[in-house]
Amino acid sequence: MVAGICWPFSYFVLILFCKASADSSSFPYIRQPALLRDGDPGFDMLLLVRTWPPTFCEQLREQREECTAPPLQEFTLHGLWPEYSSGGWPQYCSTVEKKDGEGYESVNGELSKKITTTSSYGSDDSDDRKIRCEWPSFHGSTLNFWDHEWDKHGTCAAPLLGNRTEFFQTVVNLHDQFNLNRLFHSHRLWPVGNSQGIFDSTEAAHAVEQAWGVKPRLACHKGSLAEVWICLDLDLKAIECPGKVKPGQMCGNQFRMPPGAQASSDCQQFFPGKGKNWAQYLRWPAIIGFSILMGSVVSAVLVEMKRRQQRGGEGSSDATAATYEPLGEA
Asked: Does the reported pTM lie above 0.85?
């Protein structure tokens, strides 16, 4: 997107902006599915967007606001956005009607239940925990964040991806398929301890290209990695991003990754070996190992000193005996 990174906390501003537009002709990036020819979903590609939460919270602090949840040291989902390869994007493609507080009417007329914390997302509660862990909001209600992503982007993707539940399931599946946490961690592109990491943008792009055959878009905020974009075709295959599809602020030659909080115990199962701060696990073994090594060195030095002292003592006794040996008569 050429308009920059659309953070969750600003969605209400975008809604007001869109309402202020007289019609779709005054806002050329909006297209209604009803006006499209058969078989045309209204876009020709999608963007899979993941956020680095510590940078997001840094941006909030600059605006004298705070994150409402600890920023995870994990890439989390921002969304899946329909795009035009020539630049621009569709948004708010359908009026979403609430049904008795239980669900929403999707653009194709099928009832798609609202995602809640009571297992309406999938077949069991693990699905709900998974999406809460991998697609959280760090500024306000997570449910409101999901509502925004569906209203703005999901309704436009519906001709291709289906109703609300199918949309969210697809996004979570893509998040797992293009697993940034595991990839960045395996390439040591990860902050250690409480110190931010400084990494080479080319190295990060090359890691993504090795894994999935395409280069990502790396979005930064004042030198800190904010988001990673991966472009997809309508078959949900990774493609090179067109020249006009890029964030407002691309990363330079290097980027920082501020450290964040570890995932809660409820979420650890969804980040196995992906984003753990291994320094915290290696700290005490390293200290113990170093102590043993230093103890061995000190012990060896003391033994050597004692051995030399003993040799020196024997030499001194011999010298003394020679000095005071009675002289023979002349």
From this structure: no
